[in-house]
Predict the structure.
Amino acid sequence: PLPRGMEGVSFACIKYAPTQIGSNDSSLTGTRTGAQGAPLQRTRSGLASGQHLYALMNNAGGCWAVTWVQDPISGMLSIARYKFLENSRGACMDISPCGRLLAVGTSEGVSMVLSTADLSIVSKNLKAHMVFCTGICFAADGKHVLSVSLDASATLLSTTPSPHKSLAARIHRVAMPLLIFFCFCLLVLLQAVRVLKRQGHFGLLLQIRAVFEQLGIHFSPLDNLEQPWKGEL
């Protein structure tokens, strides 16, 4: 059987290149290959030694990048690696001149670059086009990918993204949840102060303000607590 989640896949595009796959790969033997839109059938390939097939495959769940290898004895193809890419369908694919990178374009206008070594995403543009990609190819030096679309646009994507952008993206991923958590805690504290004031717990509020003062934090909702407290006395 195919790996879980890949039920009903069909081939959108196939490329091959003489790249190497590490010896620690866990091949899923017995997986069968076939033509687009048809049930997968057993097939013998004519791959030379060291060559591998890279397939862009679609099913109802989205698109997959798949590496196929040939059994040296039986000649049958089996899956060595696979990776789910997007919820949309894959539209086009190309392989770099060095055979180390794959470029993929999707039906939602997303373009991305993958490593053939482990199918990890090297770079990605979620808004490359407004509609589906109609073609994608590598530059001769392999440093850029050009994608085109039905919206008459063409977009370049670098295969070596700037380290500064990568660092900024990591900081953004960490900072945003922290900021949301801080805002949530501040709203909870403001509501708690309102409730305590309404119920007349000024002694507790004074203790809270003292803690904030020891921390060097001025919290304006805790100002002017002495007047109501003196009134009660």
